[in-house]
Amino acid sequence: MEGGGEIARLREIMRRLRDPVTGCPWDIAQDFASIAPYTIEEAHEVADVIARQAWAELPGELGDLLLQVVYHAQMAEEAGLFGLDDVVRAISNKMVARHPHVFGEESRDKTAAQQTADWERIKAAERGPARVLDGVALGLPALTRAVKLQKRAARVGFDWPSTDEVVAKIAEEAAELVEARDRLTAAEVEEEFGDLLFVMANLARHLKVDPEAALRAANAKFTRRFGRIEDWLAEAGKGPDESNLAEMDALWNRAKAEEKAAK
């Protein structure tokens, strides 16, 4: 396609994929709800590439994420709701409106924290009268949403003053979970476990730690160390299913010591 650049080419590709006569049967069958999980997945894959600093992979992953935006816009255009130009216009207008210190008359002489506070103030004005927790997206990863809910509540003073109270609450919730394990139903155990995770997210917020990033790092560490266990077992001519917990735990500690020594 000539004259429109690569974005125009992508829009045309998406239009043809969704063509009800000549398009792809799978793409034609999709709707907003069926595509939404892929949108979330692609955003996570972008975050994963950044966490691994695999910069050569980033253009491809960003392209996959961009495709999701184009896909939703194409479906919206077919339904007479809006188009890609409306999406771009909306975010452009929002960025200008929320940065009066760049595009308006306000002074740029502010700290990052002050600018964040101003951003939230402008967002609140855009939303109009609303409850404190309104607008925190349901589709966010649960840990991320927990932190955002807690931040909103903290703005109006509903927050512990220090990590000491949070840690005490973690101990309380952990004890309740142990008790629940022995005498409550599966649904009640799940509820107690959720309470514990929610307070753990609160501790992460107080420590200025992103719980999603921390858990991704822990997952990567577990994968890496378990891989070393498999390597060492393979050198001994066996697999994990032919080992036992004591042996694998010893190899885990070996992998842990190996990593510490390499730092």
From TrEMBL:
Catalytic activity: ATP + H2O = AMP + diphosphate + H(+)
InterPro entries: MazG-like_dom, NTP-PPase_MazG-like_C, NTP-PPase_MazG-like_N, NTP_PyrPHydrolase_MazG
UniProt organism field: Paragemmobacter kunshanensis
Molecular function terms from GO: ATP diphosphatase activity
GO biological process, one term: dTTP catabolic process
Lineage, broadest ranks: Bacteria, Pseudomonadati, Pseudomonadota, Alphaproteobacteria, Rhodobacterales
Keywords: Hydrolase
All residue ranges annotated as the NTP pyrophosphohydrolase MazG-like domain in the record: 30-103, 165-225
Gene3D superfamilies reported in the protein's UniProt record: MazG-like
Stretches that traverse the bilayer: none
Name of the protein: Nucleoside triphosphate pyrophosphohydrolase
